[in-house]
Amino acid sequence: MNIQNLIERQIQEDWKSKSKILKEKIKESYERLNATLAKQKGDTEDRGHGFGEFANDVLDSEVILNIMSRKKGKGLPPDRAEGIIRAKNILEKYLDNNFASIPKPTMLEYSWSSEVSFLSAIEDYYMPFSEIFLALRIADFEKNASYVKFPEVYKKEKLSWGKIMKQEWEMVPVFVAWEIHCLLKPSEMLSPLTTIASKIFPVKLVMIENELPIPDISLDEEEYIASMLPTDLALLVPGLQKIHYFQAPAELENRLFGDKIKQILSGMGTALIRVYTGNLQENQENYAYRAALCRYLPWFEYNPHRDFSFTACISLDGNSHIDDIWGKDVLGEGQFSEERVITFADFVCQQGFASRHFSEPSAQERKRPMDMAEYLELETWNRQHYYPVVKDLSSKPKIPSKILVALSAERAKIWKTLQNWAGIDKPLWDQKVEELKSSFKVEKDKALSEQEKRLTTEKERESKEILSKAFQNLVVNLLTDDVEKRVQLLTSGLSVGEVSIPPVPTQTSTNGNGHSATAIQEKVETKTTEAWVESKLCTACDECVTINRSIFAYNQDKQAYIKNPKGGPFKDIVKAAEKCSAGIIHPGKPLDPNEKDLEKLTKRAEKYN
After folding, report:
1. How far apart are CA 562 and CA 576, in angstroms?
2. Three-state SS for 92?
């Protein structure tokens, strides 16, 4: 099976399902329009306007229209009746001879040079559907009573191309135009493709290539490299934004290839399929497959209907070694087989028909041989030290011409662009990401340094405050055991040698998490029986909270206070007072008169009150 047979089979299968839907639609619409006319005829007779012999279904449509148009305010409006009859006649024409008048799927051989006649053939092919869809719409309007909304449709002979809707185009057979063409200058196809893209017809163009477009060796290399390198279709067609483009080597046994062809032929809109069959020589297998490996015609699809995102419209599915510049193929058999990189120049050399572009290796002054793939990766200034080498199927080295080197470099550049589009390889984007990462790292390091400095300063300040409070507490406890004197020392300030202890602020605490000097004084003066703590003198030794966390707790300044005097037995408060290294816990009087050993506990608590 060749590519033409594959496409013809696919469009016939596609038409089977489409034609069934279209034929049922035509038949149903015809019957509906007939019923509408019959009902109007019956309504007219029921009003007492008998037609004599016409009552026996002899009355034709023209007579009905004439009679209805003369009865103002009764029956169908003239425009509506005329539109219904016209639509009925259209559908009747295509119903005859089992729908023989409906166009069938067509394959037409074409040429880019005959663009005008080609477009004319497309319009002629789709012309019948402009009147078929008009008739189907009128039938739908009658079913939905929509004449008032669309009266202008009833006056038309056919629909204009721009008025045909997507669901209507989905019922038309495929028109395939194909050509066998050696693509020397893809840029020459831009003009006809632009014209075709401006049309709305779901035409499918198929371009079959069976040979490589390699210029003659006699051309001036510098001139060719500078101005004659062709632009690839894969880079041109996506710019038109309307054509569904697919290119691949013609691997007819490849399931993915067949599925892609089927999907495109049954899809909406204009499509261009470019396949490469090659001119197979003896003992040359997998020729089309290697055409993809050398990136001459890699698998590539641009589907403008897939998504709004350009990258999402691009697909490179079907390519092997998709992350690399060149593909690799296994050459040879058994112990003599090897996996070898296939550049475009390697591919041409293995085909064997461009022998004039290759020469035998000879002594190159001050130069060393290098595989073509590695040679192309070198910077231009560094290539002067090497010369490129490719290998034929027998692994014999050859030196390619400058034109083949230039074409290989072009194929690599185009492939990198396709990788970029598909989101596989984005060197510029990756560079930008690295720059952003570096910028973010600098900002992050700076922020962390500032945060570390701030935390260190805050920690040093807190450490000084804790040491100051601990020293203050220690000095006061060494000077006196009398609570009243302690309060007096704290409120008036203390100076011991070179150490100056500031007075404790006299403002009353409002947060409930500690006791100011005033509060202490009040506790002493009122001789309260409730347990209390001189919080300002606390050294945060953790003794009290370890004994009972329900009674004792720390405030926001890491100073102990009585959280709940009823949170535990009086025994725990006395024990905490005895354990407190600062001696600032005052048990007061027991709250539970029934607590065990209360007399002993009260006696133990006296010296701390």
Report:
1. 11
2. helix
Instruction: Of 40-44, 158-162, 372-376, 427-431, give the range with the top mean pLDDT.
Output: 372-376
* Closest residue by Cα to residue 423 from 579, 559, 317: 317
Over 50: is that where the pLDDT of 527 sits? no
Q: pTM for the full model?
A: 0.64
φ, ψ (nearest 5 deg) of residue 73: 80, 0
| Tokens coding 376 | 């192309």
405 CB burial (10 A radius; 0-12, 13-18, 19+): buried
Spatial contact of 345 and 352, defined as CB atoms under 8 Å apart: no
**CA–centroid distance for 407 within its chain:** 33
How many other CB atoms sit within 10 Å of the CB of residue 447? 10
Per-residue three-class SS string for 263-305: HHHHCCCCEEEEEECCCCCCCCCCHHHHHHHCCCCCCEEECCC
166 contacts 268 by C-beta, under 8 angstroms? yes
Cβ distance 278 to 210 under 8 Å? yes
- CA 85-90-96 angle, to 5 degrees, is 120
Query: pLDDT, tens digit, for every residue of 410-461?
Result: 899 999 999 989 988 655 556 666 777 777 788 888 888 888 888 888 888 8
Q: Are 559 and 520 in contact (CB under 8 A)?
A: no
Residue 48 to residue 399: CA distance in whole angstroms: 100
Model confidence pLDDT, tens digit, residues 51-69: 434 444 444 555 555 545 4
Of 397, 386, 385, 394, nearest in space to 359 by CA:
397
Structure tokens at 181: 């063409």
Q: Which alpha helices (H) appear in 502-594, and where do they start and end?
A: 517-526, 543-547, 570-579
Residues 6+ apart with CB under 8 A from 322: 316, 419, 424
Residue 118 confidence (pLDDT): 74
Cα 21 to Cα 25: distance, rounded to the nearest angstrom:
6
Q: List the single range of 154-158, 265-269, 400-404, 515-519 with lowest mean pLDDT.
A: 515-519
pLDDT digits (tens, 9 = 90+) for 180-236: 887 777 777 888 888 888 888 889 999 998 888 887 777 666 666 555 555 788 999
Nearest alpha carbon to residue 171 among 245, 266, 261, 270: 266
DSSP-derived letter for residue 228 is: I
The token duo for 316 is: 């490179």
Instruction: Give me 206's structure tokens.
Output: 């198929």
Task: Assign 223 to helix, strand or coil.
Answer: helix
Parallel, antiparallel or unpaired: strands 300-302 and 244-249: antiparallel
